[in-house]
Input
Amino acid sequence: MRLLDRFFSCHCSGGTAPDAGCDHEGTLLLIGNPNVGKSALFNRLTGGSATVSNYPGTTVDVTRGSLIADHQVWEVIDVPGAYSLEPRDAAEEVATRIVAEHPDAVAVAVLDATRIERGLYLLLQVLEGGMRTVVAVNMIDAARAKGVLVDTAALQQLLGVPVVSTAATTGEGIRDLVGILHKAQVANLATVRDRLAGKTPQTRVNLPGCAGCGRCG
Amino acid sequence: MKKAITDLEYGETGTIVEILGFRQELNSLGIRTGKNVKMITRQPIKGPVVVIAGDVQVAMGCELAAGVVVDLGTGGDR
Output
């Protein structure tokens, strides 16, 4: 199939019920706290030019771009930074609305590696929403400089969704992030709670799109 | 000894034991029970209060902060 055809058509019959290996278009939402590098990540993924600054609240509107990965065209949406999905200001209202409008999208939950805990509240809200999710632990270069190490494997095991570390300004980990998008999972919060309590729930089998690295179980 | 976060002296630390009122709003900013906080600054005439919780500076309105109760006794982090 030529690249152009891929852009303008989808070879799924009827366009419903996308199955594995189908060139179906998907939507990617970059969700995270203010000032964690969502726009920098957006620019890396799409080659776009969203405004990036070292101040929270830079993005108040929505920026859209596209990413072609693994024969699939993704629409990437740069969501304004939010601390929670119960809106308290204009940017959070926009963020909440976008999330509500795209229930079938894949959420890329962006965390600041130097301040992991601050982002977990929003991450949990995203997971509660039942979206397919991958976690990007961004600013890993800054964390390393501060002597902060992030155990992404443990986080992945606990949450049951893929976790990769990235540094959007240098490009580190972007390829890993793109490569793992098709493994995005809906988290089972009851299972997460069990794991936190020290129980080891049954490993899920036949996860959609998962080749079975066995780590997210 | 327990007191409201607004009564902490500059540089004083405490562990949050109770949040009265707007819990959800503060939770999303990383202010939750069991968290260690250190007073950075508080502005006069009911101005905002700034504390460090973990590595993050959090500023909150005086009314919001007044509902946060800290215990000075325990120094255990978490």
